[in-house]
């Protein structure tokens, strides 16, 4: 996906032992397609099926009693592998609920701009997919609280409730988003298509260079880069869509995401004079001077960087866990995928290190104005069933959101990062939280440093001055 996934406020998660996450396959396609399952018999009017609140609908009628129409707006295009899994889940639902008509509209990523006006106009949309953080912030007047519904029995999970069938860290993360959005505390989305930000690397190239273990410290990271260089391999690549991840990855590892958030919002510019910023600048300058960065980073336009990884032109790429699916066609079935967390940066505070990880998920949400909540939630149960989630793992190379489900082979190494992490960091560890300052100054000046146009000392001076100038009078 060429649009970066934004953010979640810092969150200390106590339940990270069973972890996971990863958004698979965010293609750029925006095809809007609808598919409908015709009702086997005339449907009841919406008012006759269910206009009750979520708490009144905790007990779902027997499947054979459900009827009416359910409309689901998906964030995938009809050409993406996720759509095939959705179609299969809808078919299973229809087999058990023949009186329910289901319409699936595949909006692609255009859903982000279409969903709000459609909901506000009163268009029938019973279920929709969104980033839960963005949905709760922007669509809070339209989302249904799901606490009682989540106590229903899940499908294919040995008697577990829907809530208990989802990875604990994910479901609790969704709950944590309700307060900041100004909603009553609770669950307003069911997470699925989880993701995390990690270094993805080519194991074959690491083996060729004689690297026997992934780096966990900055020193080990530099040593790995040198081994790759000596083997004739460009160590690191990235492109314009994901430049911020490297800045935030380093500073977040050193100081934590709260500090990084404060840095890009500092109106005085003085925080840019902190010794850790100069250390960062010196280390980036060092990566450039030692030719650890790909020679193509200056002009790389998405998806050029990730294609370089897929083709074996570079060894490492910092990205989301949707990456293996996005470049599967180029990389081929024999590509040896590995991943590791951003290495620990020295001389930081106790808020950084590998306790923090940028992770999240997409979510399934119900329209609180839906006239058919029972049937809509029953369909959601099929979409997040063990069968559907494991199909996502196989067909879309996605991490399943359900507990006790096998991860796809290209993402198996990601489990180590999740087991280490205790803090949920926002996108880029907060480096993009400065809005226009981040996009217009932080990232471009970083590129000047990474391409050798300015020195480390010049970087610090320029960032301090630019921050003060940008925030003057604000």
TrEMBL record:
This protein's UniProt keywords: Signal
Positions of the UniProt region annotated as Disordered: 30-62
Gene3D superfamilies xrefs: Periplasmic binding protein-like II
UniProt xrefs under InterPro entries: Bact_solute-bd_prot1, SBP
Comp. bias (Low complexity): 30-55
Signal peptide: 1-24
Name assigned to this protein: Extracellular solute-binding protein
């Amino acid at each position: 996906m060429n649009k970066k996934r934004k953010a979640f406020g810092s969150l200390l998660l106590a339940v990270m032992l069973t972890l996971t996450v990863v958004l698979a396959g965010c293609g750029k396609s925006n095809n809007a397609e609808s598919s409908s399952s015709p009702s086997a018999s005339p449907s009841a009017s919406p008012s006759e099926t269910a206009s009750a609140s979520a708490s009144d609908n905790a007990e779902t009628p027997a499947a054979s009693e459900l009827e009416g129409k359910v409309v689901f707006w998906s964030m995938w295009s009809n050409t993406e592998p996720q759509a095939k899994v959705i179609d299969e889940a809808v078919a299973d639902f229809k087999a058990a609920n023949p009186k329910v008509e289901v319409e699936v509209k595949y909006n692609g990523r255009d859903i982000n701009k279409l969903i709000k006006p459609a909901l506000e106009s009163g268009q029938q949309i019973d279920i929709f997919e969104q980033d839960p953080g963005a949905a709760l912030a922007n669509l809070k007047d339209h989302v249904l609280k799901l606490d009682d519904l989540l106590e229903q029995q899940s499908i294919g999970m040995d008697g577990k409730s829907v809530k208990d069938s989802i990875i604990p860290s994910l479901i609790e993360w969704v709950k944590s988003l309700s307060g900041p959005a100004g909603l009553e505390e609770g669950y307003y989305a069911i997470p699925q298509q989880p993701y995390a930000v990690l270094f993805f690397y080519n194991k074959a190239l690491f083996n060729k260079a004689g690297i026997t273990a992934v780096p966990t410290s900055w020193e080990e990271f530099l040593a790995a880069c040198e081994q790759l260089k000596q083997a004739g391999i460009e160590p690191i690549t990235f492109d314009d869509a994901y430049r911020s991840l490297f800045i935030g990855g380093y500073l977040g590892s050193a100081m934590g995401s709260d500090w990084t958030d404060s840095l890009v919002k500092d109106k005085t510019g003085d925080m840019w004079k902190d010794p850790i910023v100069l250390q960062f600048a010196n280390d980036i300058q060092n990566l450039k001077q030692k030719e650890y960065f790909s020679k193509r980073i200056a002009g790389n336009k998405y998806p050029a960087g990730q294609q370089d990884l897929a083709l074996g032109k570079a060894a490492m790429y910092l990205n989301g866990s949707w990456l293996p699916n996005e470049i599967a066609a180029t990389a081929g079935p024999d590509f040896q995928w590995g991943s590791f967390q951003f290495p620990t940066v020295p001389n930081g505070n106790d808020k950084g290190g590998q306790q923090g990880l940028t992770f999240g998920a997409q979510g399934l949400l119900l329209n609180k104005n839906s006239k058919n909540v029972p049937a809509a939630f029953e369909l959601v149960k099929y979409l997040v069933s063990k069968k559907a989630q494991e199909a996502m793992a196989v067909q879309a190379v996605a991490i399943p959101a359900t507990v006790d489900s096998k991860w796809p082979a290209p993402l198996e190494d990601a489990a180590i990062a999740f087991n280490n992490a205790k803090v949920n960091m926002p996108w880029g560890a907060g480096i993009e939280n400065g809005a226009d300052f981040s996009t217009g100054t932080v990232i471009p000046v970083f590129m000047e440093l990474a391409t050798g146009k300015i020195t480390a000392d010049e970087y610090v001076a320029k960032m301090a001055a630019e921050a003060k100038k940008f925030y003057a009078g604000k």
